Amino acid sequence: MKSSSEKVPEITEYPPSEGVGEVDEIKLGNEHEVFKKGEDIVDFRTVGWLRASSICIKIQFALGVLNIPSCLYTLGAFPGALCVVGWAFLNTYNAVLFGDFKFRHPGIYDVTDVAYVIGGPILREVMGALFMIGCVFCVASSCVGLSTAFNALSHHAACTVWWSFLSMFFIGAGASMRKFHSIGWLTWAGFASMFVSVFIVVVAVTQLDRPAAAPPTGPYDLGWNWIGYPTFISAMTASTSIFVSGAGAPMFLQVISEMRKPTDFRKALYLCNFIINASYLAFSLVIYRWCGKWVASPSLGSAGQTIKMVAYGIALLGLFVGAILYLHLGAKMLFVRVLRNSRHLQANTVVHWSVWLSCTFGLCALGFILAEAIPIFNYLIALTGSICFAPLSLALPPVAWLYDHWDYRKGSLLRKGIWSMFVLSFLLGTFMTVGGTYSTVELIIEAYASGQIGSAFSCADNSNSS
């Protein structure tokens, strides 16, 4: 039950029978949205569907493409490829479920509002905390990737902690642009820089006689397998890492809220997920085929020092833009939560700017601290997926569907079957949350015990550990 004394978000609801195709465009207009249109206020709803697609691409592409090749080594080429395709389908469908839920409840701004409609204030606080933690984890992963890039380009001219701190400052400054429209023009450039840098590595590894990290002379074991034989812990960690590479569904809700025409979301989503998952599959399989167990994580270091420097030099913009987007999403959620239903939300006041900058730089500082505490790239990615995005992207979307279609459990056999599939989808999200978190934490403990990870705020570069 909702407390009568609590100030709740204004979330308009429509009958569950109304599907996305039946929602009148007028119902998605000014009166129901969090961000209003009008004179003398900041207009946040300025994003077209192509720019929305570019934002969604950059949200997911920055970190996933750097991590999946090492996951294929754990799982094997065939199971790894199936994992990429399977998670791509499920992540896309769950994003559609979130979009449809917003269209049936147009007052929704972000994933916390979805949780509030379904389960009230307690579920909202839990999902909000997970979303914020997830964004901070993504910023931390980006800090690790950026510090690795600066170490490669400078030949470790400065302490890794210094490179992380410098990255954090520029990430915070970039994320402080208030509107997605302002950041949107950077996303295509960021995606292009990441795509080109990975493509260079893909071409370079095919030209080597042996992997750059393999012994320079004599026989060696490539470590390439059609099917891997991982332990439960390593398999869960690898699968979780692949899943989270495309688990942007809870973040896309905020993008929809700043679109000029929200019903164009599906076009933006399908274009986004086709591009990134085709890239994931092609790039990762080629890098793994030529590098085997000698693949680096992040993967840009897989073709030797010279190509590593070239690739990281080109990828710097993409790494920064990805981190900026993650931070912007987390900060915007907190910002709207603090100032919702207040005139300061869309007014250029001192309160408006003070809250906004506190959100961006405060979360960025937390990301920096986390990056120094767990400086192994693939472990950070896996932990992000299991703790945060498994409940947000796997468990919550089917629950949102069940909330609006609970009557399916008493309908025809087909309707009961559909209802059961959504229940199973929720249970899968629960399993990934528990199993993925347990597995990744075990690997982190083992890494500390074996010396793979040094002390916190160490100047050592641990990013290529696996």
UniProtKB/TrEMBL annotation:
Membrane-crossing residue ranges in chain numbering: 126-147, 153-173, 185-206, 226-256, 268-290, 310-329, 350-370, 376-396, 417-438
Amino acid transporter transmembrane domain: residues covered: 46-433
Superkingdom of source: Eukaryota
GO molecular function per UniProt: L-amino acid transmembrane transporter activity
Membrane topology category: Multi-pass membrane protein
One GO cellular component term: membrane
UniProtKB keywords: Membrane, Transmembrane, Transmembrane helix
InterPro entries: AA_transpt_TM (IPR013057)
Compartment(s) of residence: Membrane
Main location: membrane
Family: Belongs to the amino acid/polyamine transporter 2 family.
Name of this protein: Amino acid transporter transmembrane domain-containing protein
Species whose genome carries this gene: Coleophoma cylindrospora
